[in-house]
Amino acid sequence: MQALANALLSELASRTMSFLVSTYGSTAAARKQEEDLHMLRLLLLRSGTIAEEAEGRRVTNRAMLWQLGALRDEMLRGYYVLDTIR
């Protein structure tokens, strides 16, 4: 009888711990993903503002133009990732 009680308590404790770990783990992961998406949105807004400001100025330096093009390309990739995840 005591062995049965120990087995039941052990199984109950195991299932309780498994439930708590899975519940906490999934909410923490979802919260982290939301924070990452929010940060991506902010970075995309910032990079869009930088690109617009640079386009409004007359930039003639080839290196700066190349960096501006790279910024635009990465900004488009960021929007693609954001749209794909949502």
TrEMBL record:
Domain of life: Eukaryota
Organism: Dichanthelium oligosanthes
PANTHER family in UniProt: OS05G0533301 PROTEIN (PTHR33377:SF115), OS10G0134700 PROTEIN-RELATED (PTHR33377)
Protein name: Rx N-terminal domain-containing protein
